[in-house]
Amino acid sequence: MDQPANNVVPNEEPKKMMGYAWRVLIAEDEKNLRDLLSLSLSKTGYVVKAVADGVELLEEVKEFKPDIILLDIMMPRMDGFAALQKIRRSSDVPVAMLTALGNVEDVVTGFELGADDYITKPFTFKEVRVRLEAIMRRIAWAKNPPTPMAVTIGDVTLDNETHEVRLRGKTVELTPIEFQLLQYLMAHPGQPVSKETLFRDVWGYEFVGGTNLVEVGIRRLRTKIEEEPSRPYYIRTVRGVGYKFQVPD
User: Which of 92, 87, 79 is nearest to 60 (CA)?
Assistant: First the structure.
């Protein structure tokens, strides 16, 4: 039987990490897919709520207070990009975009607006589960990073307690995934880190050939913390390896 699209889906053993049940909010206009995701995630142990468009989504972000959002791009009344922009004005809740197969522009646009991840259609439920668990692990790592509460390298200060980044004393606005990418690089100062490692340890799963999420993330970080992004001082490219956060002499 289909689950009601606008009701919390009951579950017996809520999915837990860090000691509490995780709440997933789904925004998907295709009813069959919406109901299938709701039912599957509920059986896995998440607390789930599903809506059909971006307007309903924004209402439920306030009421349901989700830990993770699965957000379709093409929806009536308000599409996923517009909804994501509004969400990011007041919340850093992790958002995984649902996008059509091979639409690289959607991936890049969503990431630049503040998405944490993307899942391409058609997808299997196993892939959705792996992505959600990767986001959960990433959040757990960000809350308890293997670094001091505040790290300063050169003119860049990253505060793990307040999740703020300051450049020469001025706050720099980063999306959640940008913060976690910078956090990882600054936790390994001066050490070359491969794209594969960044994708595995920041995004939370094995590198997939052809993905450009790491490259986009690095490019976005450079525009925010480098004086000359085309000639970066802090986030250096290590030819044939990946990237490193430069320690000033």
Answer: 87
Residue holding tokens 């919340």? 91
221-224: list long-range contacts, CB under 8 Å, 24+ apart.
221/174, 221/178, 221/181, 221/182, 224/167, 224/172, 224/173, 224/174, 224/178
Four-CA torsion 120, 124, 126, 129, nearest 10 degrees: 50
How far is it, in rounded angstroms, from Cα 34 to Cα 89?
A: 26
Structure tokens at 177: 């995934």
Which pair of tokens denotes residue 201? 């340890």
What is the total residue count of the chain? 249
CATH of domain 16-143: 3.40.50.2300
Looking at the DSSP assignment, which residues form a beta bridge with residue 48?
Answer: 9, 24
| Strands 95-100 and 68-72, sheet pairing | parallel
Domain ranges of the chain: 16-143, 150-245
Q: What is the pLDDT of residues 49-100, one digit of tens each?
A: 999 999 999 999 999 999 999 999 999 999 999 999 999 988 888 899 998 7
Task: Round to whole Å and give the CA distance between 139 and 117.
Answer: 13
- Tell which residue, 36, 9, 13, 12, has the closest CA to residue 24: 9
| CATH 3.20.20.70 fits domain 150-245 | no
- pTM for the whole thing? 0.69
CA dihedral 97, 98, 104, 107 (to 10 degrees): 0
Q: What is the mean pLDDT of the chain?
A: 84
Strand spans (E) along the chain? 16-17, 20-21, 23-27, 47-51, 68-72, 95-100, 117-121, 150-153, 156-159, 164-167, 170-172, 193-194, 235-238, 242-245
- Nearest alpha carbon to residue 26 among 46, 43, 4, 48: 48
